Amino acid sequence: MSPFARLCDRVDRGLAAIETVIIATLAVIGIGLGTMQVVLRYVFNTGFEWNEAYFVLATVTAILMAGSRAVRDDMHVRVDVIKMIVPAATARVLDLIAHAASLALCAFYVWCGFLYVNFTRAMDTASPETGLKDWLVYSIMPSILVLFCIRYLLRIRATWLGHDVAPHGDGVA
């Protein structure tokens, strides 16, 4: 295995481990906050005003991270009808085009996201519910989209080399 292939494999496995921890942690936090708010609201007729904001933040961040994992596992949403009726070589070219287009779109969103984060940082606004600076919350989107870009680069490499699916044998689901 070449040094570049080992590097790609390490990056893939490292990101998978980080994504797993973040997705699991944020899912547990989201479930805990959601359950807490329901119990407080419907049993004790009270609640915390910040709870729903943190619940949404944890849930949306976990879902975005899961989207990055879907790219890794080649489970992202797409239309496969054409791939089913064309030869394998053509299907591979179509995959390369689709991955390249997805990479370009994600890179564009990263750029726009960072522009917006810089704008909100200059405005120095904060959420009244959580007290968190808006730029900090909005930085989640471009940060995770950087992960999408890395995932699409790895998918393009794998498709170029003729690998149909990302390797799963690392013990990280």
UniProtKB/TrEMBL annotation:
Family: Belongs to the TRAP transporter small permease family.
Membrane topology of this protein: Multi-pass membrane protein
Ranges of residues in domain Tripartite ATP-independent periplasmic transporters DctQ component: 32-159
PANTHER family (alphabetical): 2,3-DIKETO-L-GULONATE TRAP TRANSPORTER SMALL PERMEASE PROTEIN YIAM (PTHR35011)
Keyword tRNA processing among UniProt keywords: no
Assembly, per entry: The complex comprises the extracytoplasmic solute receptor protein and the two transmembrane proteins.
Superkingdom classification of source: Bacteria
Protein name according to UniProt: TRAP transporter small permease protein
Keyword Membrane appears in the UniProt entry: yes
Coiled-coil parts of chain: none
